[in-house]
Amino acid sequence: MLFTGFHMPNKKSKTKKLVVLALFLTLSACFATGCTSTDTGEIRDASGISTGRIGVMTGSIGEIYAEEKYPDATMQMYDSLMDSVLALSAGQVDYVITAYTNALTYKKSNGDLTYLPERLTDEETAIAIGKDNTRLLESINAVLTQFKEDGTLDDIITRWVKEDDSPYEQVDIPAVKGGEELKVAISTGREPMVFVQDNNYVGLDCELIERIAYELGMSVTYSDMSFSALIPALTSGRADCVISNMTATEERAKQVNFSHAYFSNPQVVMIRNPDYVSSKPWYESIKDSFIGNFITENRWILLAQGLLTTVIVSVLSATLGTVLGFGVCMLHMNKNSALSGIARVYIEIIRGIPVLVLLMLLFYVVLAGINIDPVLVAVITFSLNFSAYVSELMRTSIGSVDKGQVEAATATGFAKWQRFTLIVFPQAARIALPVFRGELISMVKMTSVVGYIAIMDLTKASDIIRARTFDAAFPLIVTAILYFIISTLLVSSLSRLEKNIDPKKRKREVKLDA
Asked: Which tens digit of pLDDT belongs to each residue from 360-376?
């Protein structure tokens, strides 16, 4: 955050910074909404793709195809297809290779984008199932065969894949209540195959798997995660199957089994529409963006739910991490070399592993065999990460306290615990608190990666909205504002605590207010 860790000596300074931030974000929204790419009309076909800039989603067929067919091109990979499309719209890439259904949706929703009529591949989409779950594979294949024969599959495809601008035709889907759970891993933002509408998972893939589950007497539970995490989720036992417009490639088939194909979804090339001209005034664009991002389908509820999850993960991680960090600090300062060595190794390992890697290691490897809520895994991860930094911060602060005071307390008869709680710890806390405040804010911001393990936090909610509206400005700006508010509240609370435990700061605050 822009103002992370700053000290607000009075209300005027705090208000001034809030006004500056609001003005900055408002101008950013106006600029992002009212401006369009200046690169128009230059690319009308795929003649320059072999040496151009190609945007692809990590782990997708588009990435595989581009690597094989266009080795001299500059390939830019994105964690989500939505990000690659936004990059195309902004002129950061010249082409995007994606599935036909995705291109169809993006063209409908964005007049500045289009796709070329040539089909690059003829790929078959299938459901991925774990290698050791042959019983489920056979059951799903049997239902798919039945759906193909009785016309159910064709009916589902016809109602969801629309080449014109007609709306989707949703119908009531029968569901089993209280049946065996079918854990399904999905990656939203792949409309019309799987996406979020009215705060529910819908699309061709969702309807198909729900109808299959009904035939099998099972109930569906979804886990929404990044596309690159789908196969790891399946192989680690976090999911029973994956359905998310996934092509059955030879490489993937080495790790998982695939059902019969249920849809042919070729790859196509997307480009910016050379004939597109936006005539809408910037203020109307802002109004439409606000309504589309937050009012339509009650999308503000997604942000509210994501905000709650972010706060829960942050508060629990900060609390547990601080307690654990204090324990590790005491262990590190122990005179027993073995105990001290264990603490040092723990600190070095945790600090040396990026928090995202640690998160995925715990979720997909260490705790893979345990049926544990992803939110709890996130809390454990960030508590471990935070504790390593807190322990070193406490150890340094305790070491900064004048030893003469401790010796004087010993001479006057203070017990060991009295010396620590009454003399050492209060002074160490005053030294540590300013740095602790910065570490806490950093930890809160790092929680934005929890979406990788199927948690809908604030950032993930923003991604879901952007995947429906293709608006990079408003969802991200609102997310930035919410993170800023969280950070500001934490800074304000800790600054007040710092003032209360430090007499010198309390006197300085009184003089400034006067």
From this structure: 999 988 888 788 889 99
CA–CA distance from 330 to each of 105, 327, 336, 414 (Å)? 57, 5, 11, 20
The owner of tokens 């005491």 is 330
Strands laid side by side in the 267-272 sheet = 74-78, 53-57, 95-99, 267-272, 113-115
Strands (E), 241-397: 241-242, 256-258, 263-264, 267-272
* C-beta separation of 452 from 356 below 8 A: yes
Please state whether beta strands 256-258 and 95-99 pair in parallel, antiparallel, or not at all (unpaired): unpaired
Q: What angle do CA 334, 338, 339 make, to 5 degrees?
A: 45
Closest alpha carbon to 445 in 318, 258, 263, 320? 318
Residues 6+ apart with CB under 8 A from 415: none
Contacts of residue 398, defined as CB under 8 A and 6 or more positions apart, other chains included, come to 329, 333, 424, 425, 428
Cα–Cα distance between 460 and 232 in angstroms, integer?
19
Nearest alpha-carbon partner for 312 in 488, 477, 457 = 457
CA distance 85 to 204: 21
Kindly report, residue by residue over 134-163, the tens digit of the pLDDT.
999 999 999 999 999 999 999 999 999 988
| CA–CA gap between residue 114 and residue 257 (Å, rounded) | 34
Rounded Cα distance, 296 and 309, in Å: 22
Helix (H, G, I), strand (E, B) or coil at 301: helix
Alpha-carbon Rg for the chain in angstroms? 27
Q: Are strands 95-99 and 53-57 parallel, antiparallel or unpaired?
A: parallel
- Show Cβ contacts of residue 412 under 8 Å, excluding neighbours closer than 6 positions: none
Are 270 and 168 contacting, i.e. CB atoms less than 8 angstroms apart?
no
Max CA separation in the chain (angstroms): 91
Is residue 20 pLDDT above 70, yes or no? Answer: no
Query: Could you give the CA distance from residue 160 to residue 427 in angstroms, rounded to a whole number?
Result: 65
Tokens of 130: 């774990």
HSE on the CB side for 462, CA within 13 Å? 20
Q: How far, in Å, CA of 51 to CA of 72, rounded?
A: 6
Helix H or strand E segment including 96: strand 95-99
Q: In this structure, what token pair is assigned to residue 148?
A: 């193909």
